[in-house]
Specification:
The protein is 43% helix and 0% strand. The protein is mainly alpha-helical and 143 residues long. Helix 1 packs across helix 5, helix 2 packs across helix 3 and helix 2 packs across helix 4.
Length: 143
């Protein structure tokens, strides 16, 4: 049976702490001052997330099932699901097969994913997070 409260994490220090004379023998870690909560910066999307979102959006727009598209692409249904959720990095062959199964070319799929990435970058700039050229050390890339 545990001696700690059920909703509290039990902390086991890496180094034994010495008890101070007036502490009654308890070995509690010193309390840290409460810090103001920081809101984390939005995470930059990963390519696999963008491609997965496009695959899922296109499949749903066509009102097709995972099973139907997976069979047409000749990939397993669980693997296609993992791709759509951004859990797996697919090879270009698998991406091309999934795109073909949806009536797209590989270039179409990648272009749609690139559009999503550009939309994310524009939204960051409009919120004042960064300038569009700052991340390229002063190089200006034409859109």
């Amino acid at each position: 049976m545990s001696t700690h409260a059920p909703n509290e994490a039990r902390v086991i220090p890496l180094r034994p702490q010495t008890s101070s004379p007036g502490s009654g023998g308890t070995n509690r870690a010193p309390q840290r001052p409460a810090e103001a909560p920081q809101t984390p910066a939005p995470r930059e999307p990963l390519w696999r997330d963008l491609v997965g979102d496009v695959l899922r959006r296109e499949r749903l727009a066509q009102e097709r099932t995972l099973k139907d598209v997976a069979e047409a692409a000749r990939i397993s249904m669980p693997y296609l699901s993992e791709l759509e959720r951004g859990r797996k990095e697919a090879s270009s062959e698998v991406l091309a097969a999934a795109a073909r199964a949806l009536g797209l070319g590989l270039a179409d799929l990648l272009s749609l994913a690139q559009d999503e990435l550009a939309r994310y970058a524009r939204s960051r700039v409009s919120r004042g997070r960064t300038s569009p050229t700052a991340q390229y050390d002063g190089l200006c890339l034409a859109a």
